[in-house]
Amino acid sequence: MDIRPLIIGALLGVTGLALGVVLFFAGNAGVMTLTADAVMLPWFGFALVAVLLAVWVSGMVLTRRLNEPLLALAESVSRINRGKLERPIPYLSRRDGIGQLARALVALSARQRLEVSSAIDEAQQARRSLMVANNRLGEVNDELQASRAELGSIQSRLETVEVSDQATGLLNHRFFEQALASELKRIQRNGKALSVALYRVTGWSALVRRHGKEVANGVMAKIGNVIADTVRTTDLVARYSDDSIVLMLPETSGRSAGRVVEDIHKLIALMEFDSPVRQNEVLVAGGLAATDTDDGTSEDIPSRLEQALIRSMAEGGEALGVA
Fold first, then answer.
1. Coil, strand, or helix at residue 192?
2. What is each CA distance from 136 to 25, 71, 124, 125, 170, in whole angstroms?
3. Which of 97, 107, 109, 267 could cross-link with 1 by S-S, CB 3.0 to 4.6 Å?
4. Which tens digits make up the pLDDT trace of 132-189?
5. Are the C-beta atoms of 290 and 196 separated by less than 8 Å?
6. CB contact set of 15 (below 8 Å; sequence gap of 6+)
7. Are 198 and 305 in contact (CB under 8 A)?
8. Predicted TM-score (pTM) of this structure
9. Region of 317 on the Ramachandran plot (φ > 0 left; ψ -120 to 50 alpha; else beta)
10. Ordered domains of the chain (ranges, CATH)
C-alpha cells in the first residue's frame, strides 16, 4: 500500500486548517477599529509562523517514520545480497506497503537460501565425484604401472631368450656370431689382437644316452660357469653348440690367451660333477685361434677352431690344440 497520498493529504489538511484560522481572524478583524487592527497584526503573524512550524514538524515526523522502516528493509536487502540470511526481517506484521515489502524480502531470502543450499549440495556432489574420479585415476595409474612393469619384464625375458641358451643360461651361438663380427671389425680399425678358444665335450652323445639331455645340459652349464668365473668380465662365454662352449678374449694376443686357455683346460679336467655323472665320463678337448698368428686370417676363425679341436682330440683331449 502506498502511503504517500495519505501523507500529502495530511499536510494539505493541516495547511487548510491553518489558513481557515487565519481567515477567521481576518474576518473578525474587519469590524474592528483601526487601532484594534494594529493591535491584532502581530498576533496574526505569530499564528501564521506557528502553523508553518507545525506543518514542518509534522513533515519531519512523518518522514522519519517512513525512512526508518525503509532503511531497516534496505539493510535486510544488503544482508540477503551478501548471503547472510540468519537475521530476521522486521515489519512483517504491518499491513501497509512496508509490510508487503518485508514479506517480499522474506520470500526472496527463502528462495536465495534454497538456491544456496542447492548450490552447496551440487558442490558436495561434484567434490564426491571428483574424489571418486581421482581414486579411479589412481587405480588406473597403478594398473598402468603394473602393466608397464609386466611389459618390461616380458621384454627383458624376450631379450634374454634371444641372446641366451635356455638350457644352460649361457649366451647362445647367435649372440657369439654377432659379437665376433663386431669385434673383427673393431680390430681392423685399432689393429689389436683377438683370441678365441673352443671347448668340446667329446663324449656328449654317450652322456645323453646314459643320463638324459637335462643332465648333460647341466654338465655344459657347470663347465660354462667355471670358465666365466675364471676370465675377465670383458671376455665372452657362450654355448657354441650342444657339446661346445666358446670363449672370446678381446684385445688378447695368441700367446697371452694360450696360457689362460690352457689353465682353464686343466681346470675343467679336474672338475667333479653332480651325481650320477662321474668325472671320467666327461672328456673335454680344447682349441685356440688368434688373429695375430700366421696360420690364417681373422675371417676364418671358426674353421681354425675346428682344426685346433681336431688336434686336441687326436691327443685324447689332454693337450690344447692351436690353429
1. coil
2. 97, 54, 18, 16, 44
3. 97
4. 888 888 888 887 787 678 656 655 654 555 788 999 999 999 999 999 999 988 888 8
5. yes
6. 51, 55
7. yes
8. 0.52
9. left
10. 1-163 (no CATH), 173-322 (3.30.70.270)
